[in-house]
Amino acid sequence: MIRVVLFDTFGTIVDWRSSIAHESEELALSKGLTNFDGDAFARAWRAGYAPGMARVTAGKAPFVSIDFIHRNRLDEILPGFGLAMLDETERAHLNLAWHRLDPWPDSVSGLTRIRSKFMISPLSNGSLMLLATMAKRAGLPWDFIFSSDMHRAFKRNPAVYQNAIRLLHLEPEQIMMAAAHNDDLEAARNEGMQTAYINRPTEYGVDQRADFAATSKWNIIANSVEDLADQLACPAI
Amino acid sequence: MIRVVLFDTFGTIVDWRSSIAHESEELALSKGLTNFDGDAFARAWRAGYAPGMARVTAGKAPFVSIDFIHRNRLDEILPGFGLAMLDETERAHLNLAWHRLDPWPDSVSGLTRIRSKFMISPLSNGSLMLLATMAKRAGLPWDFIFSSDMHRAFKRNPAVYQNAIRLLHLEPEQIMMAAAHNDDLEAARNEGMQTAYINRPTEYGVDQRADFAATSKWNIIANSVEDLADQLACPAI
How far apart are CA B101 and CA A144, in angstroms? Predict the structure, then answer.
């Protein structure tokens, strides 16, 4: 009965925190910084993500690609981390670190299994080139890609889920939303989709304030993408 | 300098005529028809495609998925081919023959090579599920999928090419449109894209009236997707 499984990406499929920490630490080291805290840098950068999208969702800013929101926040935090010396080319390259995030260890194998039985796609706030570059680099085997640019809205705006349903020409209950964030699933369920919670309690590290566990009776509650593949009865590869 | 190569699909990547002929002939045989002409059926079905889209582009009909245009034309032609007895389930299944088209022999190998160097996607009048199902079945290795549903317009409406450029956040000259149809390339060039003509002079069989050869100085003129891969200096796989 389920035809398509849609996945949140940041936090659910890829581990943005360790990926950004790693890339920023290498850059800081190349600039001679010895006390740079990559984990803190990643969390500080990410802390501008939700507020940047919230301004769009509230109608206080026009829709912009998530790449612009990332860049604005990057420019804000660089001085506090001793990286004010980065020039335009270096900033532009660092901003694309969000296109080069590494998957959690279970993501590629789990997605490959789920893809053998269902259509799979991200339903993410990422931009198209971000999601396509990430997928190509990491080997995420999406059948197609939904990006926020296509919806011109960010989750949890109901328009995102509604537009995905419309584009698929399916009944909402033929679509499952999988995410590590309870509020993402709440928004999907409100539109009639099925839901799968994938627990990622270390996503935000010391900044984690929510999503240590499922907070509702989602259709599936899983500990990894592999576990979701098991519960969806997808064959082993 | 080129980052993304976009491909027309019907006729350029997949051979709709022989695919539809084959599937309709099998169905006709199962219904006891012995004089059924599958090639004529495929061409008659396809003859409703451009007029159906033209009504949308002219503003005489609201945007609808290409699946609906296919279905309307199917219902029109079934009686003339002795298939008026098909029930709703059979018609719905036959309509999805457009989701099951076979690629030309050079398509998968050529696309795989081009994908090793560039991002690749269809820029097609197909619907999302049509293009995703076709790709999964045939092994077309798209990085992502642009469907007409995303643009709510059909080629050669300039809005389609403009929307693709906008979603990619690239300069138009960083994008190449590849197609077997000169007018598709003309529309892409009008928006600043680079162009590649892939010659498919047998696409329409006895109904072919145009596109026997390139009619303009496109950036690349190729005889197959493999030839395009060669001219784009993509490594052998």
Answer: 18
pLDDT above 70: percentage of residues in chain A: 100
Write out chain A residues lying below 8 Å of B169, CB-based: 65, 67, 127-129, 149
As a dihedral over the C-alpha atoms of residue B32, residue B35, residue B38, residue B43, rounded to 10 degrees, the angle is -130
**pLDDT exceeds cutoff 90 at A237:** no
State whether B131 and A143 contact (CB < 8 Å).
no
Q: Do domains A4-15+101-231 and A16-99 have the same CATH topology?
A: no
Q: Where are the domains of chain B?
A: 4-15+101-231, 16-99
| pLDDT value for A210 | 97
pTM of this prediction?
0.97
- What are the tokens at B164? 């693709």
Option in A132, A149, A168 nearest B119 (CB): A132
Which residues in chain A touch residue B127, judged by CB atoms under 8 angstroms apart? 169
Chain B residues close to A127, C-beta within 8 Å:
169
**Stretch B165-178: mean pLDDT, rounded?**
98
Quickly state the pLDDT bin for B203 (edges 50, 70, 90).
very high
Asked if B143's CB is within 8 angstroms of A136's CB, the reply is yes
Nearest CA in chain A to B140: A143
Question: Would you place residue B144 in the very low, low, confident or very high pLDDT band (cuts 50, 70, 90)?
Answer: very high
Q: How far is A167 from chain B (nearest CA, A)?
A: 6
Q: Which long-range contacts (CB under 8 A, 24 or more apart) does A70-78 make?
A: A70/A45, A70/A95, A70/A98, A71/A95, A72/A48, A73/A45, A73/A47, A73/A48, A73/A49, A74/A45, A76/A48, A77/A41, A77/A44, A77/A45, A77/A48
pLDDT tens, residue by residue, B18-51: 999 999 999 999 999 999 999 999 999 999 999 9
**How many residues in total does chain A contain?**
237
Q: Is A147 in Cβ contact with B136 (below 8 Å)? A: no
Q: Which two tokens stand for residue A63?
A: 């829709």
* Contact at CB, A132 and B144, closer than 8 angstroms: yes
The tens digit of pLDDT for each residue in B60-89 reads: 999 999 999 999 999 999 999 999 999 999
Q: What is the CATH number of domain A16-99?
A: 1.10.150.240
pLDDT computed for residue B11 by the predictor: 98
Over range A191-200, report the average pLDDT: 98
Question: Is the CB of B136 less than 8 angstroms away from the CB of A119?
Answer: yes
Pick the CATH number of A4-15+101-231 from 3.90.79.10, 3.30.470.30, 3.40.50.1000, 1.10.530.10: 3.40.50.1000
| Mutation to test the A interface, candidates B71, B116, B143, B170, most A Cβ within 10 Å | B143
Q: What percent of chain B has pLDDT over 90?
A: 100
Q: How far does the CA of residue A146 sit from the closest CA of chain B (Å)?
A: 9
Other C-beta atoms within 10 Å of B112: how many?
18
Find the residue in B nearest to A143 (Cα). B132
